[in-house]
Amino acid sequence: MLSFDLHKRKLLTAFLLLLFAWSLFGVNWQEGVLHSSGLGTAMEIFAAMFQPDLSADIIRLAVHSSWITLAYATAGISLALILALVFGILASGVLAGGKGSRKMMKGFFRGVLGFMRAIHELVWAWLFVASFGLTPYAAVFALAIPYGGILGRIFADMINDVPEEPIQALRAAGASRLQCLFYGYLPSVKASMISYTMYRYECAVRSSAIMSFVGLGGLGYQIQLSLDDLHYDEVWTFMYFLILLIILIDGWSNMLRKRMAL
Amino acid sequence: MSEQNMIEVNSIEKRYERKIALSSLSFVVKKGELVALIGPSGAGKTTLLNLLASLLEPDSGELKVDGKPLSQYADRRQRARKIGLIRQQFDLVGQLAVIHNVLAGRLAEWSLLKSFASLFIPQEKDKAVDALKRVGLEDKLYERTSNLSGGEQQRVALARLLMQKPEVILADEPVASLDPARSEDILAMLTGLAKQENQTVVASLHSVEYARKYFTRLIALKNGDIFFDLPSHQVTEQQLQELYQLKELN
């Protein structure tokens, strides 16, 4: 049986390789693969990487845009953290009494979290811009909802993975479910919660930059404007600021982790 | 020692699938008795303790603590005042400071607000310090619990029991993961403190030597049944040999 299966798999591989080779004939090699001046543009962009525009105006603009991007991301992740704590704890089911109600609670709140994160932050941004207009709230809510969904789901899983023995011991000492949460579950997962939230904070900064393409201001918006004007040196200035933001948050996250490991 | 019946076990049965874990077991433990459950692995010691701690339900039979059926201790406060539990060392929340693990023994008596506030400003700190002094750990008050050694962690669990002050202490292999010196230390402390507070102790133990040294009464379980139930000084070598004999040799 095994040799036959192997044989079939080899046949499939050969077939797929032939298919790929055949598909190469369909490509028009004269035009269409690369933009006629594409290679030149790529070289220009690459060259600009080493000559970012460091004039005072651009730096001032970059600092201001970084600040906006960071502010959206920070507000968004803070709101997401609150949402995630509330929904994540509910979705873990540890507050429910009986087996039946625990199952129902888990099912319902995991569903809510799934809905929140099924829709990408960019789509949320469109929806909120359409309803609120170009306000900071649109950006903050657009970030908070999907990130709350992601964080909440992970928090719920972390809480469910806490070893059972210490919790049983707390119950035996007469602790209520909420007391078990504060004395058992949350202290056990606090460190991983913080470190995962910090990682998501990093992602939120990137998302916040991208989201500004929608027209909400920030680093992404400036990158788009400079790209449209073919000012690749400015593009790189803004990119370096974005990278700097990520590195700063990573450093902060490492500091927090070290302090908690004590 | 008073004659009050603290634990009454009346022909309880427990099976897992088709395997019988305990078959119609009956015994009575009086207040202040120090009882050790001994017997080979799989004899049903842990099952019996889990039934007493109401972590498991018996299939049939009746369990009474202080004259009341266990099922009537639905209120967690009442139950915590009556029955306390200590097991192997992974019973504590490692990420909490020692003092919070000790104060967890008071959770039954505390409101949610008070127990929450205590995580920031420890409440009833004097009592916790006192309990830790009695187990010789007063210098580790704010240490992270997971940084303590196995023996020290088990002493923290004892301090938590001191805060809880249950009338009955159930101990499931309390020294299984400790070296001989630490084991003796913990058992001496457990039985010593129980005597001071006139508490009743039921402990499962692997070591017959410790059981005879620290406990007043031995209940031997074999294949889910009571093999013998005697004061420690009356147990003979012959009986112990038969207790731990492998089935094939019979």
TrEMBL record, chain A:
Domain ABC transmembrane type-1 residues, every copy: 66-257
Listed transmembrane segments: 70-96, 108-128, 134-156, 203-223, 235-253
Record-level GO BP terms: transmembrane transport
Record localization: Cell membrane
One GO term describing the cellular component: plasma membrane
Pfam family, one: BPD_transp_1
Cited CDD domains: TM_PBP2
Entry keywords, A to Z: Cell membrane, Membrane, Transmembrane, Transmembrane helix, Transport
Highest rank taxon of the organism: Bacteria
Keyword Membrane: yes
Keyword Membrane: yes
Membrane-related topology note: Multi-pass membrane protein
Gene3D superfamilies: MetI-like
Family listed: Belongs to the binding-protein-dependent transport system permease family.
Protein name: Phosphonate ABC transporter permease
Annotated source species: Mesobacillus campisalis
